[in-house]
Amino acid sequence: MTTDREPSFNPNRFALKALLVLLAGWLLVMSALLLVGARFDPPPGRMLALFGPALDQDRAFRLVLGEGGYLIGDGVAGRLWTVYSEDESFAGRLRARGALALWRAEAFDWMFSTGCTGDNVALTRARPVTDQ
Q1: pTM to 2 decimals?
Q2: Domain regions of the chain by residue span
Q3: Are 46 and 125 in contact (CB under 8 A)?
Q4: How far apart are CA 25 and CA 99, in angstroms?
Q5: Do residues 51 and 82 lie in contact, with contact meaning Cβ atoms separated by under 8 Å?
Q6: How many CB atoms lie within 10 A of CB 124?
Q7: Which of 19, 66, 71, 103 has the maximal Cβ count within 10 Å?
């Protein structure tokens, strides 16, 4: 004696599948962003620089200043920093000296506007003030 019942809806199974789909999408997007940031140098101006664990915060800070850039905001755990330079070759030099990836900061303004990076005022910074 068999009955042909439709299987009942299982909210736990649905939640697990939704979580896996979101996680897979997030990993895909983040992987693409890391590949682009690791391969192409952003134009001069405001940019995000990702430093690996081999560089501590002090060395990364000295690296940015030594290459002629400005630190205008720090972000996630001292590894993702907002830097600024008008020099065309700044990003390439920074990458050659230890930055893992660099991106145009404008591409990530949504992160700063939501407070995701811990630097809530970075969105309003256009360029650093220098003595003239």
Answers
A1: 0.64
A2: 40-124
A3: yes
A4: 26
A5: no
A6: 8
A7: 103
- Over its C-alpha atoms, the chain yields an Rg (Å, rounded) of 21
Q: What are phi and psi of 64, to 5 degrees?
A: -60, -50
Cα–Cα distances (Å) from 37 to 58, 93, 95, 107, in that order, read 22, 14, 10, 11
Rounded Cα gap, residues 31 and 53, in angstroms: 18
For residue 11, give Cα distances in angstroms to 4, 8, 14, 18, 131. 21, 10, 5, 10, 61
Name the fold adopted by 40-124. Alpha-Beta Plaits (3.30.70)
What is the number of other CB atoms lying within 10 angstroms of the CB of residue 27? 10
The DSSP bridge partners found for residue 102 are 49
Indicate the Cα dihedral angle 92, 79, 72, 86, nearest 10°. 10
Which ranges constitute the DSSP H helices of the chain? 11-39, 57-66, 90-96, 109-113
pLDDT along the chain (132 residues), means of 10: 70 93 93 84 89 85 89 74 91 90 77 54 48 50
